[in-house]
Amino acid sequence: xxxxxxxxxxxxxxxxxxxxxxxxxxxxxxxxxxxxxxxxxxxxxxxxxxxxxxxxxxxxxxxxxxxxxxxxxxxxxxxxxxxxxxxxxxxxxxxxxxxxxxxxxxxxxxxxxxxxxxxxxxxxxxxxxxxxxxxxxxxxxxxxxxxxxxxxxxxxxxxxxxxxxxxxxxxxxxxxxxxxxxxxxxxxxxxxxxxxxxxxxxxxxxxxxxxxxxxxxxxxxxxxxxxxxxxxxxxxxxxxxxxxxxxxxxxxxxxxxxxxxxxxxxxxxxxxxxxxxxxxxxxxxxxxxxxxxxxxxxxxxxxxxxxxxxxxxxxxxxxxxxxxxxxxxxxxxxxxxxxxxxxxxxxxxxxxxxxxxxxxxxx
Length: 363
Ligand SMILES: Cc1ncc(COP(=O)(O)O)c(C=O)c1O
Prior knowledge:
Blueprint: H1 8-12, E1 30-32, H2 43-53, H3 65-75, E2 83-86, H4 88-100, E3 106-110, H5 116-123, E4 127-131, H6 140-145, E5 151-157, H7 169-178, E6 184-188, H8 192-195, H9 197-209, E7 213-218, E8 231-234, H10 237-246, H11 254-264, H12 267-290, E9 302-303, H13 310-322, E10 325-329, E11 339-342, H14 346-362
Parallel strand pairs: 1-10, 3-4, 3-5, 5-6, 6-7
Antiparallel strand pairs: 2-8, 7-8, 9-11, 10-11
Helix pairs in contact: 2-11, 3-11, 4-5, 7-9, 12-14
The chain binds pyridoxal-5'-phosphate.
């Protein structure tokens, strides 16, 4: 025992539950639990990391100028000074919360939001308020109904994880106009590339439309760099300056910098992954619906079939695990009757569909 006591809100914080790994697998594991890129990293990023490895005894450039310029060029952002980079986009969630919310404040999210928003709110002593979704989709009216004088940040993943649903750009703009100016609107675009370049440009433009909007992005999904831990945000000038005050001076490592520059400068790899994803997402949704596992339209790189009951979903999870196939249980997101299945390689997608066909034939 020790007399050293954490702050009360730290003790209240429930740690994030990751997708996990499959222990004791009999053969090759089909990993469809964490929305990773089935093609791995871009070969150009691997080569860039190899080269950068020889210089890891030298601290990275603390301004991350080259990486920010590469992101700006790829994303059509004029002022690279308004881009911040981070160790995964999780760090952006934490740093924004740290900057703007504390005890007595509220963070706003929707019913089935990505769980790091609540983790971060609680860890900083703020309350996390969730408003209902309709048909698994966030809506402006419900969100506005949840705003109070204490609301500091609205976190909205669009497309959302784990539902895969999204609000239209028009609806986002209407929400943005109706939000009171004291609320920071954070559009989490972790899956934006799967929607396409027009959508990426549209959410970038929303940041320029009003001084209270931030867009955050990640290299963990379509870029296939989840373990490199690299995220970024496009921020209004004043918010960018506030963010820089508390960012660790070397929060992104040099291997991630090299990989990020190579990957974001190669739109062909991103387009190839997006095309594969779109094709297989449709195939998987159709196949799952044909098995009477109701699967809504998804705009991301995963799908969420409904097994009708929490027991049947848990049984399907265990059945797949027994075949060395790992998918994500999402009861913790208020979706106990569904499982989240990432769109993987052709082989992995076929394996999970074949296994679920066997499961549904027997139960
Ligand atoms: C909606 C959303 N935002 C942010 C993240 C964080 O990703 P990372 O910290 O790997 O950039 C994830 C990861 O799953 C996510 O689904």
